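S1.2 Input.
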Amino acid sequence: MFLFDGPERADLTILLAHGAGAAMDSPSMTAAARALAAAGCRVARFEFDYMAARRTEAGRKPPPRAETLNPQYLAAIDALGAEGPLIIGGKSMGGRVASMVADALFETGRIRGLLCLGYPFHPPGKPEQLRTGHLAGLKTPTLIVQGTRDEFGTREEVATYRLSPHIELLWLEDGDHDLKPRKRVSGFSVADHLGTMATAASAWAARLHSAGR
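S1.3 Output.
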């Protein structure tokens, strides 16, 4: 099952997966998808099996290791069957999973790029446990949108990482892992940051679309 936002005849589609602990219709995912839709993008959201199972089963099934979800992400791409250009990505873990399957898809022309919203560079409080090894050689054009105080990777921390030149970073001042700032501290609202994210992502995607023609 997919949730769709945005115009049906948009130039391209963005497929987004959720994070480890919140479903595809969580407030943060919904707000991000609607912001991208308002910027003219067609957005499709989907859930991994463990999250979908929480809707019908008692208890909270814990998320599996991220790499074990790669086949499910590929299956979602097949099920979506997007006719036009496709960008994949997601929130936190969803973006991480997308990043692990992106290069094989990009090399065969199935996707144009990768969009990560709050990439989990390391677990909170464990900066030594980096999840960046595959990002150094990533060939897929990538946009990572990150809050400067994200506990999964702050601006100061990420500046020390070895990342592929194909990765662009958009930093949102005082944003947390959901890109939310403290308005009294930063002067920005969450709507401000989501608008900035969506405008930047739409312009970035348009450049990829033009380059691929």
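S1.4 Remarks. The first strand starts at residue 3 and ends at 5.
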